[in-house]
């Protein structure tokens, strides 16, 4: 017999999807990746160089790692963790325009990274649980499309404002205001606490021990983080090297975001009968190609193709990986998703650090190109291993 309290408080499918989509749009599109379209504008004004940009990116990823490791320990419900983390992103984003100190920026990017991980894990927990409870698992495509939507909207905003001559300081403040508006909408639509827990996987559904997740899946997810982060961070910079015009090079990042959003919706619609292991392997291989194209020949065409290949695969792989981790876990999946996110964060940290270290001993984009090649090789190796090891993420 159903509980009338739960029935009365059940949210609509649309409100769950919109709240989750907006939460990830703020957390990832602004908290994590607004720095990407901002970086070439900051370089253009002399605030940063490529090496310093790599260290700021690494600080964000270090915060992301800390957030992934601590999400399960926060004494709040997933919904409240999500709201608090989004508020932190609003403040840390707007504060980027308050000072020109690189040290201050390092702290702010670190804080924003931690809050982004809290938001990703907590939103995945409550939103995937509600989608399962509503018997609409395909809604995961809408949920994770939020990352691409946030990237595309923030990228478009920075692209047009940069082309109009807006200063980076004012743009950071404006992005903070946009994040605040989104936070208010999420707070209004988000389901109330205490209901989604009932949707955890049941014994016999292929779940393992509480908090357990295959190390094969964790490793492949870490390689995904390493392989995608360099093009995700430096595509606009590479585009600027081809055409030094904000009205042109700024288009690379919105295209990346649009590809990410569209790919998750497409994957949810047509990939339901394909194993998540094969989805991950295919995503790794296509992403490797996207990493290699600008290395082989740097041009507007190869940068555009890289944006489509990397942007069109990284969120499909993220969606497949997070769904697989949740499906393989009994009870509260927060720890398993946190472990996955931590592996992803370690891979992301390694990418910019390697690029910055190599940039100090080579001229131009030599260090970045070497790092992109290493990432491509790692992704291809991971794809081959995933295809050969059907038990790797079973």
Question: Can you describe what's shown?
Answer:
Helices cover 76% and strands 0% of the residues. The longest helix is centred in the first third of the chain and has 32 residues, at 102-133. The chain has helices spanning 4-9, 13-32, 35-44, 50-70, 78-94, 102-133, 140-163, 168-189, 215-242, 246-249, 252-270, 276-296, 300-327, 334-359, 366-388. Helix 5 packs antiparallel against helix 6 (102-133). It is globular, with a radius of gyration of 20 Å. By secondary structure, it is mostly helical.
Question: How are the elements arranged and paired?
Answer:
Elements: H1 4-9, H2 13-32, H3 35-44, H4 50-70, H5 78-94, H6 102-133, H7 140-163, H8 168-189, H9 215-242, H10 246-249, H11 252-270, H12 276-296, H13 300-327, H14 334-359, H15 366-388
